[in-house]
Amino acid sequence: MGVVIINFKAYREGSGKRALELAKIADDVAGRCDDYIAIAVTSLDLAEIVKEVSIDVFAQHVDAVDFGSHTGRINAEMIKEKGAKGSLVNHSERRLRLADIEHIVSKLRELSLTSVVCTNNVATTAAASALKPDYVAVEPPELIGTGIPVSKAEPEVVENSVKAAKNVNPEVKVLCGAGITCHEDYVAALDLGAEGVLLASGIVKAKDRKAALEELVGLR
Amino acid sequence: MGVVIINFKAYREGSGKRALELAKIADDVAGRCDDYIAIAVTSLDLAEIVKEVSIDVFAQHVDAVDFGSHTGRINAEMIKEKGAKGSLVNHSERRLRLADIEHIVSKLRELSLTSVVCTNNVATTAAASALKPDYVAVEPPELIGTGIPVSKAEPEVVENSVKAAKNVNPEVKVLCGAGITCHEDYVAALDLGAEGVLLASGIVKAKDRKAALEELVGLR
Amino acid sequence: MGVVIINFKAYREGSGKRALELAKIADDVAGRCDDYIAIAVTSLDLAEIVKEVSIDVFAQHVDAVDFGSHTGRINAEMIKEKGAKGSLVNHSERRLRLADIEHIVSKLRELSLTSVVCTNNVATTAAASALKPDYVAVEPPELIGTGIPVSKAEPEVVENSVKAAKNVNPEVKVLCGAGITCHEDYVAALDLGAEGVLLASGIVKAKDRKAALEELVGLR
Amino acid sequence: MGVVIINFKAYREGSGKRALELAKIADDVAGRCDDYIAIAVTSLDLAEIVKEVSIDVFAQHVDAVDFGSHTGRINAEMIKEKGAKGSLVNHSERRLRLADIEHIVSKLRELSLTSVVCTNNVATTAAASALKPDYVAVEPPELIGTGIPVSKAEPEVVENSVKAAKNVNPEVKVLCGAGITCHEDYVAALDLGAEGVLLASGIVKAKDRKAALEELVGLR
Predict the structure, then answer these.
(1) Which of A74, A90, C25, C76 is 20 to 30 A from A128 in CA distance terms?
(2) In whole angstroms, what is the distance from residue D22 CA to residue D18 CA?
(3) What is the pLDDT of residues C101-133, one digit of tens each?
(4) What average pLDDT does the structure give for chain A?
(5) How many CA atoms within 13 Å lie on the side-chain side of A112?
(6) What single DSSP character describes residue A181?
């Protein structure tokens, strides 16, 4: 069906050993459904998780720098060497300058890595789409982490984001995020024209993470 | 003919008493030519300069905040009360996050203030245009302050920026900046499809600022 | 008695015409009490307010830049030319990098302007004191804007900040902020060893601002 | 003798496979000399390198966040789980806000991890020392990457930093960085009262990295 990207954030449950556990759960569920499931993990966990699973692994962020004197920074080349599929860019918790988003998206494209640019409303979705990323993921900040799905609370944001994005760049794919936790929300997102969802706490912090992910993709 | 916006930056020659002097020079020259001349001044100088000249006065920056607990910040409402015409947004020396650019452009529009969003290349010009500002001003960072005019050194950047901007938003007006100092550069910019220029050191730091501005607009 | 610095922030009631009104109230009250009353206003309002009152006027922030290509920035030299007494530095709503705090404090000292470095706990108060500012103002962030006075809720923070500051730099003066609204809180702060208070909403957003300030300094 | 921390930065030669190679070189040299040799690597490389070497491995940066909704961030707990010894903090290429430096240093201390706070001059060294980190590493920014050793070009910066640091906090250890490439520079640093050096390009980008490190610690 659609695209599901699980953002592990800096959750305790999404880092270290528990990140690896969840990555394996996602890998297992991905093998039993028709959806494309990928994960976005911390830079500390990325290299190891890539080795342990067959699903695509994304970085949560890369810096807008080339190789050089940039202590504490990582770049697109580095995540490629580690086997990442691509990176989230400009997540609402890691907002970037426009020029840096463009730098990163261009660099990811050059390296044949996948870019997922997060945006917060229709206008920024249109703007991000003009940079020709692979995906834009619209997440109204006021809904992130609430469990109130954007696909229900603000369906027009999803619909209008899809329209605005395609209008600027017909090839960009649109995800929607913020508040997505269950199959119904996911299906609603697809019905609104999104190609899938970007989600986090609904899966990462679920008591039974395997059950939560199975439910999301309709295996329960 | 075209649009000339003079950015006073934080130059010694562009602040305090010397800012007021230059504002009056610009005001005088504006009255003697067919060009639209406006100035962008520091927040400290804005209120006084607005009172002393009849040309439009822009802020160089406003913060993406509403009224509230934001020590050290100024917003669009405040510059409107002082009589500003609008604001530069996202200058290369004051790069902003995409979500903040959108916030500021929307707020300026609501308040009937003019937005001039600065960009660094064709892709970011397209992205900024999607936010529906009044102007985008493309300035390749490598040329800023060099005296090498973008309209000559990289004419394709100007042409392609105009195309990309209009393609995304037919109503946006395109300025070009970086390295513009003389009438010839200005005319070249207009010939490439720009509606005008954003410039700084070529006028602000000129030995004879009145002569420099007169030359720019073809009065000499 | 002590020092009272009123931070106008970016409050609607603290900018534009209402800022000037409040500045005049503070000026009037200052003439009728033994306390040192100063105000910290937005960069847009600073120049005009300095001309209209005789009390000391501070900037809320200056950038760590010299004169030059720094669009949208203001520096210490500029506020001096406008007649400011000094500047707040590193307010909790405008946190700065350590190297920039040092740059700004040194520059203010060179220009014989007064620096008030805001800090959030005992350790950062000690650190800031090592930079030899005129004042450190400790404000536990969790109390800012609450009306719960630090001098009562966390008296040990004030006492220990005074000790830590004097230990590192015997000449530094310590203010305390966060939640201060009335005379009793102010006196409590002085009793704990502070030289005064930095406050904002309690005065700026009070229904009767003159009455609130008179009450603060014990005139009511 | 002293302490040698090698900062791999985001150099091409300091990341991925070449980082692992260099880590093993450092591990080997450490076993053959009396100096304490440690390395600071990118977050992407950290977990793997920790497993492959017995010398201490530092992160180059951790964010001032706890576990939670902080996409693209890593914290002190995470690097501890990966086996890091500690972290550089506030490197000149990753300058932090004072409150964040304090947050990170305190968190590292709680977790029994080692903190190395970088500073740029005598005043910021004193300030950082007040936060009670394990080390402060003073690096005049104008010398970083130049090959001009601070221990020779500005010996008084090193001496005065040691004095200022010990004055504020007798237990803090002082490193010096910037321009250190050879044994002579290293010895000069120790003679000036530093406990060791923080260095980068002189080793990481050397043609023969093993030879360069051996020379540094006097094995050649």
Answers:
(1) A74
(2) 6
(3) 999 999 999 999 999 999 999 999 999 999 999
(4) 94
(5) 2
(6) -
Mean pLDDT of B143-166: 84
Contact A132 B124 (CB under 8 A): no
* Residue C28: burial class (beta carbons within 10 Å; 0-12, 13-18, 19+): middle
D101 lies within 8 A of chain C by CB: yes
Given a contact cutoff of 8 angstroms between Cβ atoms, the answer to whether A28 and A21 are in contact is no
B13 is catalytic: no
CB pair distance less than 8 Å for A7 and D67: no
Its pTM stands at 0.95
Are the C-beta atoms of B129 and B168 separated by less than 8 Å? yes
At least 3 CB pairs under 8 A between chains B and D: no
**Cβ atoms of residues A128 and A158 within 8 Å:** no
CB A19 within 8 A of CB A49: yes
A chain contacts of residue B120, beta-carbon cutoff 8 Å: 99, 102
Tokens representing B147 are 């005296």
For D13, residues 6+ apart whose C-beta sits below 8 A from its C-beta are: D22, D204, D205, D209
How is A55-106 classified by DSSP, letter by letter? SEEEES---S--SBS-TT---HHHHHHTT--EEEES-TTS--BHHHHHHHHH
Subunit contact B119:A128, Cβ cutoff 8 A: no
Nearest CB among A15, A72, A93 relative to D78 is that of A15
Cα C120 to Cα B120, C140, D96, distances in angstroms: 38, 5, 15
**Residue A220 pLDDT:** 84
* Tokens 């439910």 sit on residue: A215
Residue in chain A lying closest to B101 (CA): A98
Q: Is B159 a catalytic residue?
A: no
Please tell me which residue of chain C has the smallest CA distance to D128: C127
Query: Which residues in chain D are closer than 8 Å to C129, comparing Cβ atoms?
Result: 130
The total number of residues shown for chain B amounts to 220
Q: What's the ipTM?
A: 0.94
What is the structure's pLDDT at D155?
85
Burial of D110: CB neighbours in 10 Å, binned 0-12, 13-18, 19+: exposed
B127 to A123: CB separation less than 8 angstroms, yes or no: no
pLDDT for the residue numbered B220? 84
Residues of D whose CB is below 8 A from C100: 95
Give residue-wise pLDDT tens across range B108-140: 999 999 999 999 999 999 999 999 999 999 988
| Chains near B (3 or more Cβ pairs under 8 Å) | A, C
For residue D36, what are the β-bridge partners? D3
* Contacting residues for A91 by C-beta, under 8 A, at least 6 apart: A7, A60, A61, A118, D71, D72
End-to-end CA distance of chain A: 15
pLDDT tens figures, D73-121: 999 999 999 999 999 999 999 999 999 999 999 999 999 999 999 999 9
More confident residue, C24 or C156: C24
For chain A, list residues with pLDDT below 70: none
